[in-house]
Amino acid sequence: MTIKQFQTLWKGAIRYALLFLLFTACSKSNAPGNKEEEKPLPTQPTQFNNPVFEPVLADPAIIKAADGWFYGYGTEDNWGDGQGNRLVPVIRSLDLVKWTVVGNAFTIKPQWKTDGGIWAPDVVLVNNKYYLYYSYSVWGDTNPGIGVAVAGNPAGPFVDKGKLFLSNEVGVPNTIDPFYFAEDDKKYLFFGSYSTALNQGTYVVELGEDGFLVKNLASKVKIAAGDFEAVMIHKRNNYYYFFGSKGSCCNGSASTYQVRVARSTSLLGPYLDKDGRNITERGNGTLLIAGNDKYAGPGHNSRIMTDKNGTDWLLYHAILKSNPIVPGGASRRTLMLDKINWIGDWPVIENEIPGDMLRKAPEF
Q1: Which domains are present in the chain?
Q2: Which residue out of 160, 177, 227, 229 is catalytically annotated?
Q3: Is 59 marked active-site?
Q4: Catalytic: which of 59, 122, 160, 338?
Q5: Whole-structure pTM value
């Protein structure tokens, strides 16, 4: 054998050896038992029990964001964990059951009011931006108000766009609990809370095209009496449904919050309960959910979330009576989840109380 022939054979042997090694490595990386290279997708729970998040997410607002995640936002609160007041806490989930803390919606508190907390946020996607409508108030505030902030990301940070109006500007006491609703190229803001004054109640006003201003404060329409707060409007088939909370929200285990409903064939009302009574009169509304021996004060529900099977789910806060207060002294308003059944075109929650057993989870 010549030297040239030997070199040719040697190069060929090296080439085959390299190909064999490469094939072996690829086979191992694709083998079922090789866990290091696998990136399993998050598993979805098949069952759940309440609460779905704790210690606190008071007055929850839930949105399905463009990135595929659900985001939850709550009233400014001190969770008693040494981190001070959270300026609108933000949590997220893929399934409404397993939630993780993302951070806070605001890095600094809006400056258009001198005192108060940021309460009862409502977050919506408007003009490809995330709008956060919020209340600015202290307990017993004689002139609370409502503002709006904007972010390009559902996790924030949100940049404040300032005040929409104060109570004394719109002529409604206790102007808190904003709720945004859009229809037929028009934008509306519902608002209002507890009061016994002559001008008490939940009202609605039309917003400008950008959602940052009210067209005419004097054109407000009364929707419900002042024994309601935390308005949420849901459209289904031929009806608009009013969900509102009554009772005390924040007295620990003695809280009496409950959710009542009414419906209308028009967005601006009149809204009538199941007995045909107009909710602009105090004392009306059909019960959806109330407290029981275990949970106090279920209320201030979010928008309804619908899973892939068409099942509707309601998120709201409630207080575990055996553990009602966080170390900082605030009511421990945990995040709850319950299925809504529709019976005779009326929303119904089983037994009219918070669910307290393992149940089938939403499917997404």
Answers
A1: 54-360 (2.115.10.20)
A2: 229
A3: yes
A4: 59
A5: 0.88
